[in-house]
Design brief:
single chain, 212 residues, alpha/beta, Rossmann fold, 6-stranded mixed β-sheet, two-stranded parallel sheet, 6 helices, 8 strands, globular
Length: 212
């Protein structure tokens, strides 16, 4: 099962559809879906894939009251904190986060990395827990970024490619991987309320931030 939004969620759903080892049971799109990204819900409709059109995880398979289980779930920028009862219905529920955890937990990880002048960013596939982006790490990749000339949209596009490579190379190994706890002493976190401090890095380009 795939939860989330945008190109990365769609590419993962397509990967599951094409796989001989997995069967895609359905998708739960983030609602409202952003206008700047391709729609996971529309992809599901075109391809005959079951979709929770409301975007509410509570409605999947009858919700908390029904007996159901799923072997593997993958989350890609699904902006709800999933409760323990939902997580427990999965053999493994994974999140692909756009940073080299434990740094830059929360939202706007690329924006903050550029604002802070980082030269390296990353993507992390980790076990999902009720705590935001804090679960044990299964796999991680890092890549170069260039704050002196990169826009957020540049790093976002680069991150999609590195993230999908991490996903497709890790999933066939999933049965053999065990998560490694994150080092809490190195953790950083940014919430939606922190966005006001991003200045010219608030949006995809500095120019767009300047006119807001």
């Amino acid at each position: 099962m795939v939860l989330g939004k945008g190109e990365l969620a769609i590419r993962a759903a397509e990967w599951f559809t094409d796989s001989t080892d997995f069967e895609l049971l359905g998708v739960i799109p983030q609602k409202p879906e952003p206008e700047w990204a391709p729609s996971l819900g529309e992809w599901a409709e075109r391809n005959g894939v079951d979709c929770v059109n409301s975007g509410r995880y509570q409605e999947f398979c009858g919700g908390e009251g029904d007996e159901w289980s799923v072997d593997v779930g993958c989350v890609f920028a699904y902006m709800s904190i999933l409760p323990e009862w939902f997580i427990a219905r999965f053999g493994r529920l994974l999140n692909l986060h756009q940073s080299a955890l434990p740094k830059y937990r929360g939202v706007g990880s690329i924006n903050w990395a550029l604002k802070n002048g980082e030269s390296v960013h990353g993507a992390t596939l980790h076990e999902l827990t009720p705590e935001v982006d804090a679960g044990p790490v299964l796999a991680q990749v890092t890549y170069s970024i260039y704050p002196e000339f990169d826009e957020v949209e540049d790093v976002y596009a680069r991150g999609i490619e590195y993230s999908f490579a991490l996903f497709e190379q890790t999933m066939p190994l999933l049965d053999r991987l065990r998560g490694v706890p994150q080092d809490e002493s190195r953790a950083t976190y940014f919430s939606e309320a922190d966005r006001a401090r991003l200045g010219e890095r608030r949006t995809f380009t500095k120019a767009r931030s300047a006119v807001r």
